[in-house]
Amino acid sequence: MPHNLPVKLGNSLETVSSARTDVVFPLPPIPEGLAAVRRRAARAMQQWRIPSDLADDALLVVSELITNAVVHALPPASLCLSRQGGRTACAVRIEVTDAGPALPRHHGGSPRQPEESGRGSAIVAALSARSGTAIYQGGTTRWAEIQ
């Protein structure tokens, strides 16, 4: 399910917040810019006082989902993090929305070895309480909930 928050997409890494403890980050269209998004996601979870083991798992899922969007999907793309739960229960919902799958690229030179890619879905499934994909006209949202 795509988030319903206004997002200024582009090369900016501005954060848009809502009353529901959601934070939205536009994703830069190049893999080199994703480290800044991961750092901002880590700061958001630190401010929410997410336990470090939960935050570590959530950051790994964030990394997998945002890399997938930038490498394999059409821009624009955005990351939405949501803190869920009360004082005793805590969960993080991660949503990455993009404009749908990109056309397959021809990789010149040496092809990637199978062990170098293709494990993202398994990592997300292993670390998530729930995860899924919503495909709709004009885009795709991949989401995961970490508890």
UniProtKB/TrEMBL annotation:
PANTHER family: ANTI-SIGMA-F FACTOR RSBW, ANTI-SIGMA-F FACTOR RSBW-RELATED. Residues 30-129 form the Histidine kinase/HSP90-like ATPase domain. The keyword Transmembrane helix does not apply. Transmembrane segments: none annotated. Keywords: ATP-binding, Kinase, Nucleotide-binding, Serine/threonine-protein kinase, Transferase. The keyword Repressor does not apply. One of its GO terms (molecular function) is protein serine/threonine kinase activity. This is ATP-binding protein. Residues 100-121 are annotated as: Disordered. It holds the Pfam family HATPase_c_2. It comes from the Bacteria. It comes from Streptomyces antimycoticus.
